[in-house]
Amino acid sequence: MDPFVMQEREFMLRLTDWERRWPRLVAGFSTRKGGASQEAFDSFNCGLHVGDIPEHVIENRRKLAEENGFSYASFTCADQVHGNEIRIIADSDVGAGRMANEEAIARTDGLLTDKANVFLASFYADCVPLFFYAPEVQVIGVAHAGWRGTVARIGPRMVETIARTWNTRPEDIFAAIGPSIGACCYEVSDMVADRIKEVIGDKSSCVLVAGSEAGKYMLNLQETNRILLEEAGILPGCIEVSHLCTSCRTDLFFSHRKENGKTGRMAAFIALKEG
Length: 275
Ligand SMILES: [Zn+2]
Hints:
With about 280 residues, the chain is of the alpha+beta class. The chain has 6 helices and 15 strands.
């Protein structure tokens, strides 16, 4: 069974094993179902930067936070740029970006906090969401890893930042890799394939297979991130991997690739209830 489990309210999947194991934790990934948005953004679009009506996006985001037991004032997000910058949430960051993209945490793809009642969110339509939890120090995080963020090592940088900032060990960190475009659908150029080979070396033979024509490859970006997280010191048994493909499942997800760029965004979310 996939670690991301569909709920009765079908606008979200939940990391139910994590939530059962650690009762303070709330974590999951929204779907495209059950929201207010129309047409290409039908219907649970959580991205304010894609041309949707802002009131609809905010209604969807608010529903996601509130149905999970958090106020919308705590919904905190960044302006994602496919980079590897990571922000440790300060009190003044809480609520950033919830009403307007210009107010989001600037140029950042990774968010970390040890604060309760901060609903961390980041946005996806094919890119890989990475979730982090360090239970001993009560630190949560989420990072946006498309191929650019992946080769910029945002996953390992999240692990290093948690370990250094909170004085813990990678062996005490758990990670989950969420729904995203699968190797079934993710064809990339030899330029991208070369960058993947640079970061994982020999192991690239596990994540790249020949594509539909010369110079094209099918890339398994979930496995690439899993390898990088394992190299960073997370134990193999502590990494959950979703096998849901956003491009195969446009009934359930937005897909930038499958829908030619005009589509909505899902939200990866993680938060801690008061201890
Ligand atoms: Zn697919």
